[in-house]
Design brief:
Blueprint: H1 2-16, E1 20-23, E2 30-34, E3 37-44, E4 47-54, E5 60-64, E6 74-81, E7 84-94, E8 97-100, E9 111-118, E10 121-129, E11 145-152, E12 165-172, E13 178-180
Antiparallel strand pairs: 1-2, 2-3, 3-4, 4-10, 5-6, 5-11, 6-7, 7-8, 9-10, 11-12, 12-13
Length: 182
């Protein structure tokens, strides 16, 4: 009987351990980690406060709700160079590319909070509206699943470099529930 209980507890523990883990973070309500990148967030009124961090000396990025691959996603990318943080707001204009919102008839709706690059880790913090007036951004549903694309590049602080790592997750922004997506 005792061996069965121990096996059940170990089995449940193994099921709960996966590549994606959800933790409580300091000033953020939730955090999802996958390999060398993390996405922490807090719903703050009509805004989403975000902290992206990755083991990289390049940019970190996130895309929200693509229709297929990268298409139709609202992308925010950021890097830190010489102590200065840069962010861009882009839109997935095809399945494999994105371009600046303002060049596609949209607007830049990201507010930079800050960033650091130290010890091989790049961290960028910003806010975006849950419901943007930008036709390219769409609405972030706090009570349902949001498809999240996380990525980072290595070697250069340039938005022109391609990602060296990427992953796709489904996240509930209101509860913190998360899972790998296909």
């Amino acid at each position: 009987m005792m061996k069965s209980v121990i096996k059940a507890i170990i089995g449940i523990g193994l099921m709960l351990c996966g590549t994606v883990t959800t933790l409580q973070a300091g000033q953020y309500d939730y955090e999802v980690k996958d390999k060398k990148i993390s996405f922490a967030w807090k719903v703050d009124g009509d805004k989403l406060a975000v902290k992206l961090a990755a083991e990289t000396d390049g940019w970190v990025g996130i895309g929200f709700n693509p229709s297929k691959d990268m298409k139709d996603a609202n992308f925010i990318l950021g890097y830190v160079k010489n102590g200065e943080t840069k962010v861009i707001d882009e839109f997935g204009d095809s399945e494999s590319a994105h371009a600046p919102d303002d060049k596609l008839g949209g607007t830049t709706d990201v507010t930079l909070v800050g960033g650091t690059e130290a010890g091989g880790m790049t961290t960028v913090e910003f806010t975006i509206p849950l419901k943007s007036a930008d036709k390219n951004d769409g609405t972030l549903n706090v009570n349902g699943d949001t498809v999240i694309l996380l990525a980072y590049s290595s070697g250069r602080d340039s938005f022109k470099t391609k990602h060296t790592y990427r992953t796709v997750l489904k996240v509930n922004l209101g509860t913190g529930a998360s899972q790998k997506a296909n």
